[in-house]
Amino acid sequence: MERAQRRPFGSAAHVGPPPRRDRRKAVVAGLAVIAVVALAACGSGTSTTKSTSPSSAPPSTGGANPNVVKTLGVGVTASAINLGVALVNFDPIKQFTDTIRTEAEQKQIYGIYIDDINSHGGVNGRKIVPDYKFYAPLGTAQIVPLCTTFAQDDKDFAVVGTFIDFSGDAQTCITKQQQRILMTFNLTQAMISQAPPGLEITAGLIPERSASILLELAQKQGTLKGKKVAILGDTTESTIVNNTIKPALAKLGVARGDDAILDVGTTGDTTNAQTQLQSFMEKWKTEGVNALFVSGDLASTKQFIQKVKQEFPDMLLLGDNTDVLDQAKQEQQAKISPNPYAGFITAGGLSPKEYDASANWKYCADIYKKATGRVPENAEQIIKTPDGKIDDTYGTINDACQTLTMFHDIAEKVGPYLNNANWQYTVDNFGPIENRGSGPYSSLHTGKYSADDNWRLQSYDPTIPPEGNWTPLTPLQDITG
């Protein structure tokens, strides 16, 4: 997209996509073992209302930083910013996932958006110098070493991309131990809380917030009326289950059954978890459980959801993970009928169709088309590779466009002295921020480091061509709290 000048997020004159939310395709590699790679998808809505949680600090839009630190951060020079880019090597996990990204294409696409920023003046005149690193998402040991490589060996100012470690050790290493900025996806509030304020950010959502908003919206709609609710999660989600979902359900006063926290393990063998689930399903039969809150990427995979729906065909499923869309589509591809995800309720934002028609997607797609001469696939298209895998070029485009443009706009607002202290002040006082890839509403401020504010109830409808998709149940809302 040709622009005379690049403007920061939040500028009324800037036309570009908001950052995409974590309501996107995900690759659950190796079933439970291998990391989830959150890929892209988004949408927007039409009707809007405003809701702000009283427990959250209001967005701040303060003026210039009164205490500017007049030094340059590590990896920042007068003319350049070293930026670490963490990306997934799919080759070791191809057998476990239906959706893939190639190294060459990921590097090309991130390069397209970095080149676009640099060709429009960079960040306050500084060019972004990318430092690409690929890793196999086969557990913490595969990604933690990247922390010291990015920070100590390569002296990068910040790290962006798909930097995913379910334990949180790698993220904490980057932000707390090495004092570097991290902008990625699949974060949790527990991870963010380990970091210095403002150093760990996601343009999308976090499960704690998603769970709370989902239950709030479901209560308003009467979705849980007459339901007896149990929770299905795994050990990596236990903090979210105990600290967010259980208290929220207790506050709503809904009837409760026993909660199942599965030990999925790290070897790829889910025999133990399957046995645990079977035991809990027997309990749920005696308890009269008829609604299941599914938490996280692992417990929501088809190996578990298939079993639940076989035993409980009429069980209401709802969960804090919009990445189940990829699992649901895989069931459609396999011609599983009825699709066990049919009617699965989540809190999401723009539908794929809405997002494809938005200025946000046009912005990202135009940059890609200008650089490659090709019209990219959109949220409603599915492209297969010769070996039958789903080619997720669309997801890579959204990840790169969203993350890099948000990094640019925050860093641009920091001003000439780009360092951690000034970055933190800017994030804590940003307020509304344009977030490419999610929808019209996003914000960052003190204590709120997940940007996406676009929310509505949605459910999976397997009849939407070509392989099912989300259908809105409520109007889109701007929930900033």
The largest sheet, given as strand count, sense and whether it forms a barrel, is: 5 strands, mixed
Helix content: 25-40%
The CATH architecture of the largest domain can be named as 3-Layer(aba) Sandwich
The overall pLDDT, averaged over residues, is 86
Total helical segments: 13
Strand content: 15-25%
Please, how many domains?
Answer: 2
User: Uncertain segments of ≥5 residues (pLDDT<50)?
Assistant: 1-61
The general outline is globular
CATH level-4 homologous superfamily of the largest domain: Response regulator
Radius of gyration from the alpha-carbon trace, in angstroms: 21 Å
* Overall SS class: alpha/beta
CATH topology-level name of the largest domain = Rossmann fold
Task: Please tally the β strands and state the result.
Answer: 23
Name of the CATH first level of the largest domain: Alpha Beta
Terminal CA distance: 33 Å
Notable features of this structure?
18% strand, 2 domains, 34% helix, single chain, Rossmann fold, alpha/beta, 481 residues, 13 helices, five-stranded mixed beta sheet, 23 strands
